[in-house]
Amino acid sequence: MKFKKLLSLFFIILAITLNPFVIEFFFGLNHRISLFANYFIITFVQIFLFLIAIVIFKNGFYKSLRTIQRKDFFVLFVSILLFLIIVETLMHLFLPPIHMIEINNNYPLEKVSHKRIVENNLNLFRNVKNDYFNYGFKRWGNLSSDKSRILIIGDSFTEMVTVNNGEEWYSYLEKNLTGYDFFVYGQGAFGTMQEYIIINDFYDIINPDFIILQFCQNDFSDNYYKWDKRLFPYSFPGYRPYLVNDEIVYKLPVPFAKLRYYSRFVDYILNMYDRIIIIFYENNLLSRPEWESIIKNDKEYVEAMNTTTKIIRKIVKRTENSEVFLFNACKTYPDNEEMFFSQFNLTFIPKIPEKIGEICFLKDVNCHVINDGHHNLVGNKVLGEYLVGYFNDNNLINLN
After folding, report:
1. Every domain range in the chain assigned CATH 3.40.50.1110
2. Which residues does 200 contact at the CB level (< 8 Å), separation at least 6?
3. Which fold does the domain 112-393 belong to in CATH?
4. Model pTM?
5. Which among 242, 273, 304, 353 is least buried, having the fewest CB atoms inside 10 angstroms?
């Protein structure tokens, strides 16, 4: 009897604790639950726990199980199944999916602006505004102009949300290459495959004379599904295109991806789990998956390199009428980086991270946002001026 009461009390306390307000405070983004569906799911779990507590207190848990007949189990199973079908149907009718496959990119046609506060240096904050123009480009030149055109494509190191428009590293190229129209597209967490899709969609519209492809060492993992998935929950937060058997396939690099695809109810439940896991990582309750640790698997390492090779070759083939430059803005990897990129018909600008690090060290300045690997205002200036000098010294692009 005592055990029955304690067990019943446990479920009552659990039901009271797992209420939307507690979940919102401890696990919600900015202490808020952003979707009404999450309130619904939490409330449903709460009611279910209360029902369990009542059954245990009234009949006893084990006694209840012994007195239930086989047909009662069948009725219970069918009832739960019908309930889940109804919930699933309602969620499909009234709630959008958390993860969507966007094979044809929905490029915005109007100007969009985003504001944020950035810790440019220790305890020194800046208000930053980022403007996005035609199709989400940070720069969209004049297509009616007779000027030569430069297309710059990259990930977050090109989107560069840590500085204002006109302060990014490529703004220094703009100031020195006044005879060119610039078209710049950068998107955080993009891999090389996603950058290829942007190039493929806009190459014939822009017809660039030069292309600058900004690479990052994590593109190797971004381009290979197994590697990307193992970095969960810091993998790409949506469906990403991967090159599989020379075909573009969209996959979700998270646990239970197929189940999430078929069940919206499960997707919403697991999305809450994703957020809880991130909270655990950020509070050091779990060991964060490190990018470098994944490369210990030689087979996956080779497959990731081979996949990246195929994607870059697709880019070079698609842009065969343009001169392509490529540089790594993040961290030199692999050790034979120059040898790896020398196999492509493009101009590779080597050791950018080391060069920028040396310049910042000699000038005794901080070149990165606090607690962030991206360049701050000074870092963008150093990178931009270095690239201007590199292009000028090697006569790669005519500065006049």
Report:
1. 112-393
2. 318
3. Rossmann fold (3.40.50)
4. 0.82
5. 273
